[in-house]
Amino acid sequence: MTRLTRDQWGPRAERHRTRAARWTSRRLERSLRGEKHPVEDFLFEYYNLSPGQLERWHPGLGTGLVDAPEYAGLGAYVTTGDVTTVDPARLDRRVRGLRWTRDLLQVTTAREPAFGCFGLHEWAMVHRSESVRHPQLSLRLGAEGTSRVVESHRIACSHVDAFRFFTPAARPLNAWPLQRADQLRREQPGCLHVTMDLYRIAFRMLPFIEATVVLDAFELAMEVRRTDMAASPYDVTGLGIEPIAIETGEGKAEYVRRQRDLTERAAPLRARLLGLCEDLLARAERAGAQA
């Protein structure tokens, strides 16, 4: 086990908190004012990790913190003498989820990325509907113009959790129906939502992994979300975002360019998360063999 004195781990925890505060402070300020931000709030609301949880640094399994009463009080930690560590006995409860996550990361990594969806999932979520997911934003082309774009394209969404928000009128227009059972079969690395989901995969491995990787995933997901909303049917100019007009040839080319860039940037993060997942499973198996 690696032992870190308070002089060693304290600055790491503070650097992590400061880095996260760039995002959490704005979220908390908006909450106090009763305001919503369709881009930045999405990661906190959809993925359901609180600002306080994002700010908290974890050393990961195998690192002990000396003089750490603030960690000793957390349920996932144990203290022996003056050293506090993540409780390795709790890892056994995560094995089933870790195995599924490993399988998902493996099949996604092995699959060729697809770049022909043009972000139409967001358009399909408002197609022929009287309500929209972000009522504080107007539709850039209006309701009828938005529906004409949807109906004039082949929708090729491969992400189950995006498809489940399609309107009833849009669901039959997708290239294939999607259910939860299809996730391992359909998930592919070119999908922007698959890249955003690396954030959820990362924080679900807490506190057994070092928390910096969670912030890495969060910050990449935030960039993805900006592209996601730029290509959406909403008018996002008021948020300081230049729309990507995917209904035009130029817009499609720009969307694919950004999609490829984000896919390339996600690859090393996905590989890192897969390695961490496999390491945790190996630790759990060794612990089971010794029991």
Q: Which tags fit this structure?
A:
291 residues; 4 strands; 5% strand; 3-methyladenine DNA glycosylase
Q: Judging from the principal axes of the Cα atoms, what is the shape?
A: globular
What's the total number of strands?
A: 4
**Percentage of residues in DSSP E strands:** 5-15%
Mean pLDDT metric = 95
Number of domains: 1
The level of helicity is 40-55%
Strand order of the largest sheet: 1-2-4-3
Which ranges are low-confidence, i.e. pLDDT below 50, for 5 or more consecutive residues? none
Q: What kind of sheet is the major sheet?
A: 4 strands, mixed
Protein name: 3-methyladenine DNA glycosylase
Organism: Aeromicrobium halocynthiae
